[in-house]
Amino acid sequence: MAANQTEGAWDLGGRGLSNIDLIPHGPNRQEIKLGNKQSKLSDTEYYPSHTGIDFYHRYKEDIALLAEMGLKVFRTSISWSRIYPNGDEETPNQAGIDYYTDLFKTCRAHNMELLVTLAHFDIPMGIVEQYNGWKNRETINLYVKFAETCFEYFGAYVNYWIPFNEINVVLHSPFSGGGLTFDETENKEAVLYQAAHYMLVASARAVESCHRITPQAKIGCMIAGGSFYPYSCNPEDVWQSMNDERTNTFFVDVQAKGKYPYYMDAFFKAKGLNIDIESDKEILKETVDFVAFSYYASRTSIADISRVEKNEGNIIVSAKNPYLKMSDWGWVIDPLGLRITMNQIYERFEKPLFVVENGLGAKDVVEVDGTIQDDYRIDYMQQHFQAMYDGIKDGVPLLGYISWGIIDLVSASTGEMSKRYGMIYVDKDNAGNGTLERKKKKSVDWYKQVIQRNGIEIQLI
């Protein structure tokens, strides 16, 4: 559960404005996420993050629900602007420290491990406006101060950390992924890859700080995962899929191997990009303990995408795969792709893996009797569990699995509540109306059995 999708309370407890607070639901959302359109708060727009699902006020009852299901690990994130409202204060916001301390204590009281993301599509707008965000090397120092504050205050409760959620998404959704905007005088690719590099340096420094401040903890990295299949055996399609895979995963090379892969030199030269990397080579050697990834779908690469029907359901546009079914929002459903992705990532990086996001965004219906019969979600998860189990039998070391999300939340991609991922229903619509009442779906009891039996021999019910 990401702070920006669940907490709400955007202007309470001393919290400052974050980039996510400027991304509305509706027709302007995509251009703002892409950094192509400047955003200012408007009385005519609805901003889903401002209220989320009110987790800020309801976390005790929500954690109790998760504990009732038998959840062993809870993934959440820390809102950077709740700790440092502007991003560059000398001391942290005590109300923010107190909130997360109590949240984490509540989880531990229910015997839940914590996996905490430091920056989950979240950067204070003070840093964006005063420092140009991740365009500026100084943002590394501001981020590291935030990270070290979190390690110092929360290290007694948290054993697993992730520096950046889906760090590779900054290339595809620059403002939501990293608070980046562009003007027409800038070379957009140069800005993106330099900002990505600064985020990688910040990640490496966070790894060093975590190992030094909380040596008992593990810290990993995370990408938006999903293999790129060639559309055909045409060598040009195979070459395209290889390059798409490289662009998507070179971040992990840096974070897990401590250096850029050889092909990025040629990539930068071919693009005419002069990225400031040389001075950071030593700090990049601070490598992660595990590799985490989200898995929702595979992608299909083709050299000339104009020749085929596109799959534009996700932010990464690819060719439509004729062999796979799609969700209500146009995301391909590919359980075997999870096994493929697990094997590819482990073969390449040889670090333990952690599936930290996987789930089905679907249109749930509350029946007349008040039940929510989400058998399609159970079927989706059952198939993905089987694929994950097969990957483990292949020899891939898997630290754990986290469903996204256990409780309905605001969709990061569309800003909708109707795109429901949870096994616990939240009464709220796309315009923000509703009681916020929590209601168990059919999948809750099924998932409870999965946890009790560790996922083995669980059949569709």
From TrEMBL:
It holds the Pfam family Glyco_hydro_1. PANTHER family: 6-PHOSPHO-BETA-GLUCOSIDASE ASCB-RELATED (PTHR10353:SF122), GLYCOSYL HYDROLASE (PTHR10353). GO terms for cellular component: cytosol. GO terms for biological process: carbohydrate catabolic process. The keyword Hydrolase applies. The lineage of its organism: Bacteria, Bacillati, Bacillota, Bacilli, Bacillales. GO terms for molecular function: beta-glucosidase activity. It comes from the Bacteria. The active site is at E357 (nucleophile). Keywords: Glycosidase, Hydrolase. This is 6-phospho-beta-glucosidase. It comes from Staphylococcus equorum. Belongs to the glycosyl hydrolase 1 family.
